[in-house]
Specification:
This protein is of the alpha/beta class. The chain has a single domain (about 5-150), classed as Rossmann fold (3-Layer(aba) Sandwich), CATH 3.40.50. It contains seven helices and five strands, in the order βαβαααβαβααβ. The chain has a five-stranded parallel sheet with strand order 3-2-1-4-5, sandwiched between helices. Helix 1 (about 15-30) links the parallel strand 1 and strand 2. It is globular. Belongs to the universal stress protein A family. This is UspA domain-containing protein. It holds the Pfam family Usp.
Length: about 150
């Protein structure tokens, strides 16, 4: 039985939020699991998002959870989960995508991780690494990989 499902998203996942939501509902809804919507930012992505979302460090309490809560991809996913009566929480984290997702999975006691990715050439994987591959190999629980079908 699943109690906690971690859905990890990053900056490139806005265009596949429907696919990710569908996958997490398929996994979590029959089990009445809580979904942890986790938005992971690298340090530079985090700084860019702070600027774009107009956080004022002198006024706003800035922590990754608050930043994730205000991110459009999280809003889209929340709307779908609300529509399907799925319980969820939002977490944000700053770090390299793969290891940070693995750490989040461990810290929230995830029974399953859902992560998206794109089909890439072997050279692309070797040169740039693969977040999904790292999560698949290192997560403390089973991982569901949602492949984004590029139309190009």
């Amino acid at each position: 039985m699943l109690d906690t499902v971690l859905l990890a998203v990053g900056p490139g996942d806005g265009d596949r939020s429907d696919q990710l939501a569908e996958a997490v509902i398929e996994v979590a809804n029959p089990a009445d699991a809580t979904v942890v919507l986790a938005h992971v930012f690298t340090s530079s992505e985090y700084d860019d998002v702070l600027d774009r979302l107009e956080f004022d460090p002198d006024v706003d309490e800035i922590d990754p959870d608050a930043v994730a809560t205000r991110h459009a991809t999280i809003h889209d996913l929340e709307a779908v989960l609300d529509e399907h009566d799925v319980d969820y929480a939002v977490r944000g984290a700053v770090g390299e995508h793969g290891p940070t997702i693995v750490d989040l999975a461990a810290s929230v006691g995830a029974d399953r991780v859902v992560v998206g990715g794109r089909r890439r050439s072997p050279t692309g994987k070797a040169v740039f690494g693969s977040t999904a591959q790292e999560v698949l190999l290192s997560a403390p629980c089973p991982v569901t990989f949602v492949r984004h079908d590029d139309a190009d």
